[in-house]
């Protein structure tokens, strides 16, 4: 068993679960400005109030796994991307505090609304910035400039992730709401899908153009033919999304949004493989000793089923529609 690959898969799973689960509750904050009615905002926040903080467990799992198994990546990437990561964490703090205080505030509620909107949008944007800067490559000699992460490509990926999370948030709210609010959310889903498809196309073209190594892996090997179904799958998801929105489906748009995210994420993993730091260091070069990996794998084998269990239970207990007259406000 190649334990390095197993750990890479665990970290990849943790990051994907974070993007999906925290993505849609960050997305709610991103679309908040389009729904100014206070009762509707209360309802929107109540759809994720019981589960939002548990969603961030996956980010902690991914970070802890990276620290334990790929310490070179942890030290190199965090040193180079220190500023955007600090900005992201500050935004997550603002978002979390607004969740706690907004329901209890009266005169300052509009300020906590702004904190929720800014924290959610900022966290998504800086996560996208980190992704773009990582894809562009980070030198191992520490020569990365203080603002080397701020490039046109990273700005593009930052905005792309904001749109991705907004679409996930909209589709989640379609699942959890009904009536006039759900109808207006349906109208937002398709324009967001079109914008996301545009970002997917531009990033897919830009990525091989900016990195000759990526272009080599995509086009000068057999990988190109295996990637050919990807645009077709994206087009199928877009077609089904249009039909689902037109026919006012409740759950299908969310499933299709998840499918689009999964396709993009798998494309990202294929692009990065087998590098831990793009074009600089492979997974095996960056990995901790096998004994350390095996020791931490035992802990992961215990912890991951527990996280999956309480996450599943949380969503199962709070399944179904959330209505204006429900009393389970967040405390």
UniProtKB/TrEMBL annotation:
<dbReference type="Pfam" id="PF02322">
    <property type="entry name" value="Cyt_bd_oxida_II"/>
</dbReference>
<dbReference type="InterPro" id="IPR003317">
    <property type="entry name" value="Cyt-d_oxidase_su2"/>
</dbReference>
<feature type="transmembrane region" description="Helical">
    <location>
        <begin position="111"/>
        <end position="135"/>
    </location>
</feature>
<keyword id="KW-0812">Transmembrane</keyword>
<feature type="transmembrane region" description="Helical">
    <location>
        <begin position="218"/>
        <end position="241"/>
    </location>
</feature>
<dbReference type="GO" id="GO:0009055">
    <property type="term" value="F:electron transfer activity"/>
</dbReference>
<keyword id="KW-1133">Transmembrane helix</keyword>
<protein>
    <submittedName>
        <fullName>Cytochrome bd-I ubiquinol oxidase subunit 2 apoprotein</fullName>
    </submittedName>
</protein>
<dbReference type="GO" id="GO:0070069">
    <property type="term" value="C:cytochrome complex"/>
</dbReference>
<feature type="transmembrane region" description="Helical">
    <location>
        <begin position="80"/>
        <end position="99"/>
    </location>
</feature>
<feature type="transmembrane region" description="Helical">
    <location>
        <begin position="187"/>
        <end position="206"/>
    </location>
</feature>
<feature type="transmembrane region" description="Helical">
    <location>
        <begin position="253"/>
        <end position="275"/>
    </location>
</feature>
<feature type="transmembrane region" description="Helical">
    <location>
        <begin position="6"/>
        <end position="35"/>
    </location>
</feature>
<dbReference type="GO" id="GO:0005886">
    <property type="term" value="C:plasma membrane"/>
</dbReference>
<feature type="transmembrane region" description="Helical">
    <location>
        <begin position="295"/>
        <end position="318"/>
    </location>
</feature>
<keyword id="KW-0472">Membrane</keyword>
<keyword id="KW-1003">Cell membrane</keyword>
<dbReference type="GO" id="GO:0019646">
    <property type="term" value="P:aerobic electron transport chain"/>
</dbReference>
<feature type="transmembrane region" description="Helical">
    <location>
        <begin position="155"/>
        <end position="175"/>
    </location>
</feature>
<comment type="similarity">
    <text>Belongs to the cytochrome ubiquinol oxidase subunit 2 family.</text>
</comment>
<dbReference type="GO" id="GO:0016682">
    <property type="term" value="F:oxidoreductase activity, acting on diphenols and related substances as donors, oxygen as acceptor"/>
</dbReference>
């Amino acid at each position: 068993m190649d334990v390095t690959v197993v750990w890479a898969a665990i970290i990849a799973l943790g990051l994907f679960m974070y993007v999906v689960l925290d993505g849609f509750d960050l997305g709610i904050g991103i679309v908040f400005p389009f729904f100014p009615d206070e009762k509707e905002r209360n309802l929107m926040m109540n759809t994720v109030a019981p589960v939002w903080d548990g969603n961030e467990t996956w980010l902690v799992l991914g970070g802890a796994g990276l620290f334990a198994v790929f310490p070179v990546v942890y030290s190199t990437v965090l040193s180079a991307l220190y500023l955007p990561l600090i900005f992201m964490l500050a935004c997550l703090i603002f978002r979390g505090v607004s969740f706690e205080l907004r329901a209890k505030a009266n005169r300052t509620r509009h300020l906590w609304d702004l904190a929720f909107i800014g924290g959610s949008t900022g966290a998504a944007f800086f996560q996208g910035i980190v992704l773009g800067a990582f894809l562009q490559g980070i030198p191992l000699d520490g020569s990365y400039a203080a603002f080397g992460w701020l490039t046109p490509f990273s700005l593009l990926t930052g905005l792309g992730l904001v749109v991705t999370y907004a679409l996930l948030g909209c589709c989640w709210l379609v699942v959890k709401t009904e009536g006039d609010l759900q109808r207006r959310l349906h109208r937002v889903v398709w324009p967001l899908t079109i914008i996301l498809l545009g970002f997917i196309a531009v990033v897919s073209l830009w990525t091989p153009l900016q990195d000759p190594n990526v272009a080599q892996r995509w086009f000068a090997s057999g990988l190109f033919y295996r990637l050919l179904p990807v645009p077709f799958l994206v087009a199928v998801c877009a077609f089904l999304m249009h039909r689902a929105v037109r026919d006012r489906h409740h759950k299908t748009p969310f499933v299709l949004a998840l499918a689009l995210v999964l396709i993009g994420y798998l494309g990202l993993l294929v692009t990065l493989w087998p590098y831990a730091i793009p074009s600089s260091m492979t997974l095996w070069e960056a990995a901790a000793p096998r004994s350390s990996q095996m020791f931490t794998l035992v802990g992961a084998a215990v912890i991951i089923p527990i996280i999956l269990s309480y996450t599943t239970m949380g969503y199962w207990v709070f399944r179904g529609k959330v209505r204006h007259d429900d009393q389970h406000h967040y405390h």
